[in-house]
Amino acid sequence: METPIVVGCFAGLLITISLLQPLARRLGLAPSVLLAMVGTLIGIGAIFLLNTKYTDAFNTIAIVFVDPPLDAEKILYIFLPILLFQTSLTLDVRRIFEDIGPILVMAVVAVFAATFFIGLALYPLGNVSLVACLLLGAIVATTDPVAVVAIFRDIGAPARLGRIVEGESLLNDAAAIVIFILLLGILTGSHELDLAKALMAFLRSFIGGAIVGALVARLFVMLLPIMRDLPLAQVTLSLALPYVIYVLSDQFADVSAVVAVVSAGIVFNLYGPSRITLEDWDFLHHVWDQIAFWASSLIFVLASILIPRLVEGFQPIDILLLFVVAAAALVSRALVIFGLLPLLSLFRMGESVSTKFKTVMLWGGMRGAVTLTLALSVSEHQALSPEVATFVTKLATGFVLFTLLVYGTSLKPLIRLLGLNRLSARDEALRGQFLALALADVRQEVEQTAQDYQIEPRIADPVTETYAERARAAADASQAFADLKDKERVILGLIALADRERYLVLNHFNEKTVSRRAIALHLATAGQIADLTRSEGRAGYNKASRQALRFRFNFRFAQWLQRRLKIHRPLAILLADRFEYLLVCRIISNELVAFNHTRIRPLVGDRVGTILNDTLCARRDDILRAIDALRLQYPDYSDALETKFLRMTGFRLEDTAYAMAHSQALIGAELYNDLHGDLMRLRHETRDRPDLDLGLQTKDLLAKHSLFADLSAEHLSDIARMMRPTFATPGEKLMRKGEKGDLVYFIASGAVEVRTGTDTIRLGRGDVVGEMALVTGKPRSADVTALGYCQLLGLSASAFRTLLQKTPDLKAHMDRLSSERQSMNAPDASPKPDAGNA
Ligand code: CMP
C-alpha cells in the first residue's frame, strides 16, 4: 500500500467528516447517523470498484478502504483512551458525585442486565458458545448518550436527569469493557469460567483501576504548574496521561485500563483547574473537544466502511439475530429504567422521573463509538475462532447501525409526539421575561454605542426603538401570564436571579479578582440554587443558599485534626477558602439586590419584587453574619484578603490600560510586552493567598480573657503554650452529658449553651465551661453546644491540674465556681440567674 494514497484517503475522510456536519444540522439528524450512512456507502463503493470488471484504475484506493492499514488492536489502543478520557473531562464531576448512588446502580446494573439478557436470548439461536453470546452482550451494553443529552438540553429536561444519563454512560462504558475483557479472557482460554472468581476479578480490576488512575492523574496534575503559562505544553502533557495510564494498567498493573483512564479523567478534571489559569484550562478543553471529535468521527466512518464487507456474509438468520439483540437490549433497558429508577427514588436515592422522560431515555439508548471500537477489536482477534469473531463483529456493528438508523432518526419525532418539546406555561413566561431582560440590555448598549460613535439620534433612535419595542412585546408576553399566581412569579424571579448569579460569578472570575477555588465552590452553589429553585421554589432557593454556608464534613474533619492531632494546615486552608468564598458571596449578593431592583422588579411587579428583595436580603444577612464571625476570629487575615482583592483589580485595570494604549498605537509592541510582563510577574506574586496562621493568636486571646487579665506576661506565655486554640461553629456539640471529662474550655469569644436537663444556661466571653468534671472527677453534668462562631481556648485535664497547682487564686475560683454550679443543678435548687464567671 503506497503511503501517499493512504494519506490521500485519510484526507478524503476528513473532508467527508467536516462536510457532513453542516448537512447533519440541516437535516436535524445526529452527525453520527450520517457518518455511519456515508461510511457504509464508501464501503460498498470500494468493494464495487475492487470487484468490477469495467475498471481497475481505482483499485489502489479501494483497497485502502476494504482492508484499512489500521488493525483492530491499534484502533483500540489509539482511540479508546482518548474517547474515555475526554468524556470524563467534560463532566460536571462535583455535581455528579451528588448522584453517584443512582448513577452507579444504573450503570453497573444496566450493563449486567443487558449483557445477560442479550447473551441468553441469543444463545439458543446462534451456533456459538454462551460466553461468545455474553461477549456480544457486553459489547453492545454500553450506551452513547450524546444524542439524548443534547435533546434533554434542548427541551429543558431537569438538569439532573441529563447529568445522571451522562454519568451513567461514562461508568457503563467502564463496566461493560471490564466485563468484555473478562469474557474475552475466558473465550481465549486465559481464564476459566467460574462465576465467583469472575466477580472477584471484576471487582479487583474495577477498584484497582480506579486507584491507579487516580494516583497517576494526581501526579500529572502536580506537574502542571511547572508549565505555567505554557498552554501548549500543558495540553501535550494531558494528552499523554490517558495513554500512560492505559499502557501502565493494561501491561503492568493487571487492573482495568479503562476504569483507570476514566478515574484519571475525573481526578484531572477535579484538581486540574486549580493548578492552571482559566484561559489555559479552557484551551485544554477545546483541544480535547477537537481530538475527541476526530476520534469518534473516524471510528464511525472506519467501522461503517467495514459494514458492507461484514454484511456480505449476512444471512437471513443474521437478520433474525439482529432483531433478537435489539429486542433483548430494549427489554433489559426498559426493566432498568422502569423498574429500577422508581425503586431508587423510593429510597430517596434519586429524583422521580416522569414516564415521558423515561420513554425518551429508553428510546435514546443508541450505541456509539465505544461499541464500534470493541467490535472492531474483536474482528481481528487472533485467539478467537473466526466464527466467533465474525459473529460478534457482525452483530455488534449491525446493532450500532440499527440503533442509529432506527432510534437516531425517530427520537425527535417521538419527543414531538410526547409533547415534550412544548414549553410549559411557566417556561413560556420565563422565556418572555428572559427576552425582555436581554433585549433591554442590548438596547442600552446600542444606545451607548451610538453615543460613543456620535451617531445622530435621527439615525440611532429608530434602531434603539426596535429593541425597546421587542423588549416590551416580550414583557407583554410574560405579562400575558398575568394569571400566574404570585408564588409562581416568585419562582420565576428566583430562577432568573439564580441564573444571573452564575453569570456574575463567571464575570468575577474573568476579571481575575478571585481564585479559582472560590469560584468553583461558588459555581457549584449557584448551580444547586438554580436546580433546587426549579424543583422546590422559594423554599428550595432558601435551602440551597443556607446549605452553601454550612460547614461540611471536610471542615469538621479538619477541625478534628487541628484539635486532636494539632495539625493546623487543612483547617487553615479551608478557612481561607471559606473567607474568600464569603467575600465573593457578599459582593454578588449586593449585585443581585441591585439587579432585582432595576431589572426584575419592573417585570414581576412591586409585590413580587419586594418578596424577592426580602429573600435576597435575608440571604445577604446570613452571609454578613458569617463574615463577621470570621473577621472577629482573624482580623489580620481578612484585611490581607481584601488588600489582595483590590490589588488584583488594580492589575486588571492597569493591564487593560496598557492593552488599550497598545491597540491605539500610543505605545509600541516592545514597550507593551515589557509592561505586560512586569505586570504578570507582580500579579503572579500576589495571586497566592496570604497564609492563615491559627497558632499566633493564643496569647492575645488569653490576655483578653478576664480570668487571666492580671497574670504576668511570662506566666501568660507559659499558659499559652499549654492552651489549644479552637474554633467552634454554630450548633457544634462541644460536650455531652455523662461523658468522661478530658478538657476544659475558656471562652474567648462567642457563646455556648449549657443544657443540664432541667435548665438551659448561656455562657459567653470570659466564662469557663467543662471545669466541673475535672474538679469533681464525675462525668459531664450537661450538654454543651456552641451557639455562634466561638473562639475557645482548650486545656487538657492534666494541663488544667498543673495550672491550678501553680495558680492558687485560679484554683480557689474554679472550686467555688464548680460548687456553685453543682448546687444550682441539684434537684431541689432554685435556678440562679447568673452562674457565669464571677
Ligand atoms: P462539666 O460537668 O465538666 O461539663 C458540662 C459543663 O457545663 C460543666 O462542666 C460546667 O462547666 C457547665 N455547667 C453545668 N451546669 C452549669 C450551670 N448550672 N451553670 C453554668 N454552667 C454549668
TrEMBL record:
Its membrane topology: Multi-pass membrane protein
According to UniProt, the name of this protein is Cyclic nucleotide-binding domain-containing protein
Any single biological process term in GO: regulation of intracellular pH
* InterPro entries in alphabetical order: Cation/H_exchanger_CPA1, Cation/H_exchanger_TM, cNMP-bd_CS, cNMP-bd_dom, cNMP-bd_dom_sf, RmlC-like_jellyroll
Residue ranges of every copy of the Cyclic nucleotide-binding domain listed in the record: 707-811
Q: Where does it live in the cell?
A: Cell membrane
GO molecular function term, any single one: potassium:proton antiporter activity
One GO cellular component this record assigns the protein to is: plasma membrane
Keywords for this entry?
A: Cell membrane, Ion transport, Membrane, Sodium, Sodium transport, Transmembrane, Transmembrane helix, Transport
According to the record, the segments passing through the membrane are 5-24, 31-50, 103-123, 129-150, 170-189, 201-223, 230-249, 255-271, 291-307, 319-347, 359-376, 388-407
Q: Where are the annotated segments for Disordered?
A: 815-838
Q: SMART domains from the xrefs?
A: cNMP
Pfam families, per database record:
cNMP_binding, Na_H_Exchanger
Q: What is the lineage of its organism?
A: Bacteria, Pseudomonadati, Pseudomonadota, Alphaproteobacteria, Hyphomicrobiales
